[in-house]
Model the fold of this input.
Amino acid sequence: MGHGFSDSKGSQKTKKQPEPIEQPQPKVQPIDPVQQQQARQQINDFLTSDRSEVLFVSESNKRHFFMIIPSEYSLSFRRSRFAFTQDEYIKEQAQVAKEILTTSPDTKLTIFCSRRERASATVMAFIAAAPELDKFFPQRWEVIYGKDSQDMWAQDYGESTRRMDGSSEFIMPVVPGLGHRSLPHLTRIPVTKIPILFEGGDLATTQVGEKKLVVVGPHTLAHTRSYYYNKGGYKISDEEIRKILKKAFSADTVLFLTPPNKGDFPILAFHIDQAVFFPKDGVAIMVKPESIPANADNSSVTYLRETLLEYRRQLKDAGFTVVEIPTTPEHLEQFQSYTNAVPIKEEDGSTVLIIPSFGDTAIESEIRHIIEEQGMGVRFVPNSTFVLHGNTHCVTGNLARVDEALPQELEGTSNLIPTKVA
Done:
């Protein structure tokens, strides 16, 4: 059993407890009509921009994935107090890569490493951890140097969509990653910044029937409202947020998932992918609220239960078939989320889910049974990134198209696909 896993009874074997997440603390802002007008203009400029070439695409239909391998001394690993190392992280990501590439012949994977000279070593480390990857290299996966690849949370850089010419477009917040992320290694993929503060784990694209939806969580709403309020006290409306997201992703509607106390977000599931995900159109898999005691000792656990009850009602009202899977307060307190999963569409159109494993064989057997009853496959992969409050979906980004050759098209780069060493 690897580091960070629990046994079948749920006892935790970790070197470090995850530190709590803090809510944003809004400050009273003086009213400034000039700044407010600038905020209105920023919103209007985007809403009047030409987005006619953008096509909607559900996340479950995206088949080109990417990962980021930060340096061993990056902020990601320092924040964990080195509770897990770069080598351990690579071993776990290699298992995710194996499942991505073996599940469907249509998938591709790009891995960005933080130093050019590390590319070949990263290839060999992935193959050593998952020998099955050897036969897919370099036709279906590659390791390339990505400038400033210091943050492992690939999903949170943004979201991709498709253009009418078949290419991808990457959509990022106006303040990248709430101020600490950029994506310079996708220089030849068009990037559009939208006047919403979001991270990819708190936003999903999916469909219910013919209706194209953007699903957004309370973390995005809280930070977006705070961002505009800091502009002279401007209070962005829900309708303005919806219009921006519909325009950005060429969607028909926007669904807000909101907790009982509007304006905040549940600390133990600050992104919606820690509570719910959308494996295929019309289906939402979420944490079952009733698997959490109503009178839990931890108030954050209790509030998450109340939030999940709200999410379930909102999802059902939106027309989703809701599939519920169990958890425990112990998993929640450790930021161990079974909904932080990656859906893969197989060649025959069926769906396989890559789900993080925390070594709880009893719950994971139950989850497998529930999901397989819905006609979907399950692949569990080990996960230790929960010590940094994220799991498998958080560290796996995606692009809307699978036929874009990223390495060859990157500006100012050369010899980025390393040659394997015998």
Remarks:
- The mean pLDDT is 85.
- Residues 299-317 form the longest helix (19 residues).
